[in-house]
Each structure stands twice: as C-alpha cells, then as structure tokens.
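writing this on my phone so excuse typos. first protein, seq and then structure
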Amino acid sequence: MAVEEPGQDPKLNPDARLDALEQRLQKAKREEAVRTGRAPAADANEQLGQRVLSTLIGGLVGGALIGWVLDRLFHTGHVLLVVFLVLGTVGGFWSIFKLANRRP
C-alpha cells in the first residue's frame, strides 16, 4: 500500500481535498466562460442598480431633450429646457422611489 497516492496532498484530509477540487473547478468554469464570451449573468442586485441608473439618466436626458426642442420651437430662450430638465429629474427620482418600494 502506497503512503502517497498520485495527485493527492497527504496534508489535507479528504473533505479539504474535495473543497479544494470544487474551488479549482469553479475557477476553471469562470475562466472558460470568460474565454468563450459566455460570462455569467448579472445577479438581481446588479440588474436593479443598472435599472435605477438608466431610469435616472433617461429622465434627465429625456427632459432636457424635450425642453430643448420646445425652446427651439417656441423661441423661449432656455426657460423650457430648465423646466423640463427639472421635471425629468423629478420623474426619474419618482420612478426610482417606486422601484425601491416594490416588494420582491
């Protein structure tokens, strides 16, 4: 009977060897997913953060664009740009507030 079998670390007990194998397997799977371009999907918290960011930016840009177009159309200087920029910001924050209070 051999004291040391091939590929096994004698200092680790069997459970620790299995844990080390699982860690190496997970690392290899992540590396393979990155290599082939199939990165793991974003988790729910990351998706919610991206949705909040896009809602806020969408409100700002949408309000500014509408205000700018109406300013050009009615020749009002930059009054409507500022008004719609504020309204877009408030609308973006209101949407974020509704997202935050939604039950999972």
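second protein below, same order as before
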Amino acid sequence: MKIVDIEVFKVKPRWIFVKVNTDEGISGWGECIGGTRTETVVNCIKETSEYLIGKDPMEIERHWQLMYRFFFRGGPVHMTAVSGIEMALWDIKGKCYNAPVYDLLGGKVRDRLMVYSWIGGDRPDKVGEDALDRRSRGFKAVKLLATEEMHYIDSYDKVEKVLNNMQAIRDSVGMDLQVGIDFHGRVHKAMAKTLIKELEAFKPMFIEEPVLPENEEAFIDLAQRTNIPLATGERLCNRWDYKRLITSGAVDIIQPDAALCGGILETKKICAMAEAYDIAAAPHAPYGPVALAATFQIDACTQNVFIQEQSLGIHYNKGFDLLDFVKNKEIFHYNNGFAEVPKGPGLGIEMNEELIREVAVDDLSWSNPKWKNYDGTMAEW
C-alpha cells in the first residue's frame, strides 16, 4: 500500500480536515487546528506531507519522526500539521486491519468515556440555567470560562462576578455536577491567587490554565497555595514541552490536544509520562469531529484519563456543528454523561465527504477576539 494523495479541506466554523488517500482505496481522515493562521497551517500541511507521497502509510512512527525532526521544529503550526497527518495514518491502519485504533495501541482499559459539557459562553452568564439544562440531559460535569478580560491587578468587582457565577451553579444544581473552571490564561499571577482562594469554597473539579503555561514559576507557586487540582496543557505542542511541567509537580491534570501535540501516539506517550508521576489526564478537544473521534481512541486505551472535553454545541460552533459532517452520528451520542467506546475500524468515524467538499469551497477566516483592558492595553482572550 502506498500514499498517493493528501487533500486539505478548510471547513467552517474553524476546522481543517486532512484526507490521506492510498493506492488501495483506503483513506484516512485527520484534523488540524486553524485558529488565526489558517492559510499558514494549510501550507505547512502541504510542505510537511510532500515527503509522504509514495510511502507506506503503515510506518507511522517512522513518518512521525521524519515529519517532526526538521532543524527548526515544534510550535503550533508545525505540530498541528504533523498531528492531523498522523491521525489520518492511524485511521488508514485501523481500517486496513478492521480494528479500532485503540486495539492497535494495547486495547481498551475502560467500558465508557465520561464527558463534560461547556456552559456560559465566552463572557459567562446564565450559568445557573445552563447547569440545570446539562443536568437534565444527564451530564455529570460541566466547564465554564471563569472571567472576561482581567488586568494584572484588577478590581474586586471582577472577582465577585466569578464567585456569583459559581454560586448560581451551586444554587441551581448543588453538588450534583462537577465543575471545571477555565481561567484560559486570562488571569495574571496576583489575581489568580485571589480568585483561587475565593473559589475553594465551591469545591471545583479543577482550575484550568490559572496562568499562561510559560509562567512556570507562577504555576508552581499557585500549586503550593491550594488544594484545588490545577490543569493545563492545551497550548503545549509535544512531549518535550510537557517534560518540565510534569516533573515540576505543579500540575495535577494534563490536557494534551491530539490535534496539536503530535497526534494520537504522541498524546498517548505524554499521558504515559504523566501516569508515571500519578498525574491525571483530561484531553483538550474543543474543535471538530475528527479530532474528537481521534481523542476518543486515546481515551479508550489510556488509564489515567478520567474525563473528556467534547465540543458538541460549544459556543464557538457557528453555522455548523460536529454532527453535520458525520454519518454515524451515534459516535457522539452521550448517555447520562458518558460516550460509548467507539467500535468501528480506524477512528470509528464515517465522514460526510459530500458536504465537506461542498462547504470547503467557501473561504475560511476565523480569528479569536482582540480584547482590551480598561486602560487600552491588550488583554488575554
């Protein structure tokens, strides 16, 4: 079997799909993260994948090493290109052997996958109502963004808004739902200390990205101040990015993204590193259906994954949602807050290629909001 072609589809709202075709008619799907650099990522996919034409798709680790080991390497653009291609190769391999990817990675360790649902939107409000809705649909856990923009030192009014949101959730559903709180890198060290201390009373499931991951020393300081589990990892691009974080002891939960950190096997390697330090994993997956399906494969065979982000109905999905591009929609059917372990070959997902080709004709331009603080300085989104 040889790779004969690699196609790239830019799909609204903000997804990039990769399709790897072979001379035996077996094709595999992958997904890359576009974000604010869609065309840059598309060009990187093309440059990275030129080497693969005519190669055996089964030699995934060999191809990964050759795609990764440029003189200048790493970073989100390069690594999301590698990730999407790698996913597609695993999809081909699973289809060739008529087995789910997790069977090729050691077999499943769980019978079902616990998932959580987003509530509140980019500037969180009505979270009490949203929490009631999610509980009525059987979810056991939710996650919300903690705050809007926040300066290095900001007013206590901003803190009160965060606490009022958490109070609204507890008033609505009590302790029935576990609640993850995502600071999203919007909060700087001083305000993070204040917020985390105040939030302890609400017993959150975790605090995500209390500060930006590059502020490693601040992360260590915050970890020593609280008993709330701290989580991070969605911006990290490979196992070497995770190495210092894991050995620092500052994190309780890692959140690798299979569409960014190198793909399926690299994510599993990162989770294995964390498991050796008794650290949990809650993979990041707020993008499209292929990335989520690939992440489900990792979850199925990875012991220290305890919960999975899922993006069905997330506030970023405008115009299209995950199920629009999927034929076997049951793969993303959640029963009482759990997804079934996928049973189909490869990634277990059947894509609606006709619709993908139709909507991919449109240009794709998505950019995250540009926020400002009260004094006009740039605020983290």
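The chain has a mean pLDDT of 95. thats all i got for now
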